[in-house]
Design a protein that fits this description.
- 47% of the residues lie in helices and 18% in strands.
- It is of the alpha/beta class.
- The chain has one domain: Alpha-Beta Barrel (TIM Barrel).
- The model has no long low-confidence stretch (mean pLDDT 96).
Length: 269
């Protein structure tokens, strides 16, 4: 497992500036959040790649800003929209291939206009097949406002898609949906390919690690048994931390806990 930080934490700081600041502060693994089409022009992708290489960073995942368009583009009855959106995301897949990123974070359809699990999975699989052309795994995030916020719905995806069902488990979104993150992890098991982590408690549902009551160590123990190759990415909203030192402290805590989890697993093995 790898600890990391999302550039989304630094929004609305420009993406390449956020990446550079994380690099300067010793963050080794990052999820890159693309905030605009202009973030992935040739010049800016070259800048992102240069920062990653210069500071020895890896980028396991990319999160697109266009997720609010996914309901109307991928899940409507108008077939050309589906084709257009898949072609649009191919641009992102090509950038991911260049950056060495393997996980594409997908929100999917909103729960106010649900489609059947069968139709949902048909559209998901079409996008996933396009991702495979670039060595990219499309992974469904559990998002409270989306159909994917329900653990039952995610179970349906596993039933229909089998090995093509991959998930990003977001701790704060699970809490917002009234789901237990640890239970979700147990239920989805090896289908979890990526994690967004944060703490939660009386002060809120999106907190720095150690500021709430989430049993991070126990969660990581389960994750190591279910999906030991996952990147575990700190993803916080900008109003949830004060200075870059807050992110660094949480990143170091997460790195320490992951190391401790792996050492303990090695001893017990």
């Amino acid at each position: 497992m790898q600890a990391g930080v999302s550039t989304a934490c630094c929004y609305p700081q420009p993406t390449e500036e956020a990446l550079y600041e994380l690099a300067l502060n010793g963050i080794s693994h990052v999820e890159i959040f693309i905030n605009a089409d202009s973030d992935i022009t040739r010049t800016r992708v070259h800048t992102l790649k240069t920062i990653l290489m210069r500071y020895g960073m890896t980028c396991p995942a990319v999160h697109p800003f266009a997720c609010p368009l996914e309901p109307v583009m991928l899940f409507s009855d108008y077939g050309r929209r589906v084709d257009d959106m898949i072609d649009y995301y191919r641009r992102t897949f090509a950038v991911m291939q260049e950056l060495g990123a393997e996980i594409f974070v997908f929100h999917g359809n909103d729960r106010k206009h649900p489609v059947t699990p069968g139709l949902y999975c048909e559209r998901f699989l079409r996008l996933a097949e396009a991702g495979k052309e670039f060595g990219v795994t499309v992974a469904q995030e559990n998002v409270e406002r989306c159909q994917s916020g329900s653990l039952h719905f995610l179970h349906e995806m596993v039933r229909i898609l089998g090995e093509d069902a991959h998930f990003v488990l977001d701790v704060k979104q699970a809490v917002r949906a009234g789901e237990s993150p640890v239970n979700m992890l147990h239920m989805l098991g090896s289908h979890v390919s990526h994690v967004h982590i944060s703490d939660h408690g009386e002060k809120g549902d999106c907190l720095l690690l150690g500021a709430g009551t989430f049993p991070v160590r126990s969660f990581l123990d389960v994750l190591h048994r279910c999906a030991p190759e996952c990147a575990v990415i700190l993803e916080l909203y900008r109003d949830c931390w004060r200075g870059i030192s807050d992110l660094v402290s949480s990143y170091r805590m997460l790195s320490f806990l992951i190391g401790s989890t792996e050492r303990n697993a090695g001893k017990s093995g």
